[in-house]
Amino acid sequence: MSRRFKEYGLIGIGLVAGILVSLQFSAVADKDTELNLPVEELRAFTEVFGRIKSDYVEPVSDKTLITSAINGMVSGLDPHSAYLDADAFKDLQVGTQGEFGGLGIEVGMEDGLVKVISPIEDTPAFNAGVKSGDLIIKLDDTLVKGLSLNDAVKRMRGKPGSSINLTILRKGESKPLVISVTRAVIKVQSVKSKLPEPGFGFVRITQFQEHTGENLATALKNLQKENNGPLKGLVLDLRNDPGGLLTGAVAVASAFLPKDALVVYTEGRTEDAKMHLTASPDNYLRGTGKSDYLKDLPDSFKSVPMVVLVNGGSASASEIVAGALQDQKRAVIMGTQSFGKGSVQTILPLGNNTALKLTTARYFTPSGRSIQAKGIEPDIVVEDPATASFDNAFRLREVDLDKHLTNGQGEDKSEAPAKPAKSQTKVKENDSSKPVITEFGAKNDYQLNQALNLLKGISILHRK
């Protein structure tokens, strides 16, 4: 059977309420696949289909039955594969532009309930106190049990300014919490930057989008201009960055690595799933027709001392960047163990403007590490005292997701990653039921201050 389709390789996590935050990588391919159809199983399927059509208490349309069957087939694979109806497919395409409507949470499905993977920074859900690991059991007066993930996401979408009550089960709470969230048109600023101290730059990437590489180049040039010369050190903040476009991740890594240095490679069953992506314009521009926005970046950014901050919310494309800079000995990784999503999803457009989001490969860091269900381990473990209690008890990671893909390097599927060593700093206990909102990059940002202290030490050593 021969079929022509357009592929989008994805490295991102979950459905967002109103958008799939994903990683896009375009290619066109012809597939010749011989299918050995399981006759007995298909016969059972048709019998069940027929019985439902003839005997179910109420009439059910063919479309409803087939769509439900597809959803069940795909959802049984892993947490990141999904069937996208027309609305979800459209949201995926719109979301990579950095603007979409909804609540601003990345979600998945677990035991028939909507599970919050992560609230996106500076969005209504984040500001309302929704946390990673929360289980949503009701949307206003509608029970989530029995809804598909797409149906739940549709109910969370709505007119900007309107509100929705989320009834949530949270570990450590004796009864459900009701959190009111006001919908908004969400504009995610991908790159933020500043000079926290003279000579030292801070760049935060909240999400990898279509223009992240360009925005990073502009931010770095502005920092050097504001500093009146090359920086002494740079902090790249990837905390709570859930991922995004693969081209954006390759671009960010390429800004700091030598030309043609390996950034990431992928392995899968098909030839299309096997890629080696280096710090080259061919790999981060990918036929967009854009000029090389990193071409004029000052050479000093290839050698400036760097610290990369990560935590349990750093996933996917964030882990690609951190892993590449760590393996290439280009930066010190600081913080806590990352999320551990090391799989690649491909968008396969189908008929009627629908699509299949299918896990097709694992990705590997330059040294050959698979971070799937494991994550990036920091060179220096530094916990944030403001969130350590919550993170240690309730932080959700890939290995905690039902049906997560195995690591692929001999690690047992059920084995959770080892907890990072405790920081020597005394951690202040917090009431885990209260929202903990850390303003990354603020003066009291503990992990940032530790990164700056390290860079100052390196700067002193370089002067000697």
Notable features of this structure?
2-enoyl-CoA Hydratase, Chain A, domain 1, 7-stranded antiparallel β-sheet, Pdz3 Domain, 26% strand, 464 residues, 8-stranded antiparallel β-sheet, 26% helix
Q: What is the number of domains?
A: 3
Any idea what the CATH architecture of the largest domain is?
Answer: Alpha-Beta Complex
Gross morphology is globular
Q: Specify Rg, calculated over alpha carbons.
A: 23 Å
Report the helical percentage.
25-40%
Low-confidence stretches: 1-9, 13-33, 412-437
In CATH, the homologous superfamily of the largest domain goes by the name 2-enoyl-CoA Hydratase, Chain A, domain 1
Please state roughly what percent of the residues sit in beta strands, choosing from under 5%, 5-15%, 15-25%, 25-35%, 35-45% or over 45%. Answer: 25-35%
How is this structure best described in words?
The chain is α+β, with helices and mostly antiparallel strands. It folds into 3 domains: about 1-35 and about 40-85, no CATH class; about 85-185, PDZ domain (Pdz3 Domain); about 190-345 and about 360-464, 2-enoyl-CoA Hydratase, Chain A, domain 1, CATH 3.90.226. Helix content is about 25%, strand content about 25%. The protein is built from 11 helices and 23 strands. The chain has helices at about 40-55, 60-75, 85-95, 125-130, 150-155, 210-225, 245-255, 280-285, 315-325, 390-395, 445-464, and strands at about 1-10, 15, 20, 25-30, 80-85, 100, 105-110, 115-120, 135-140, 140-145, 165-170, 175-180, 185, 190-195, 200-205, 235, 260-270, 275-280, 305-310, 330-335, 345-350, 355-365, 380. Strands 2, 3, 7, 8, 9, 10, 11 and 12 form an 8-stranded antiparallel beta sheet that branches. Strands 1, 4, 5, 17, 18, 21 and 22 form a 7-stranded antiparallel beta sheet that branches. Strand 21 (about 345-350) and strand 22 (about 355-365) form a beta hairpin. The longest helix has 18 residues, at about 445-464. The chain starts with a strand and ends with a helix. The model is unreliable at about 1-10, about 15-35 and about 410-435 (pLDDT under 50).
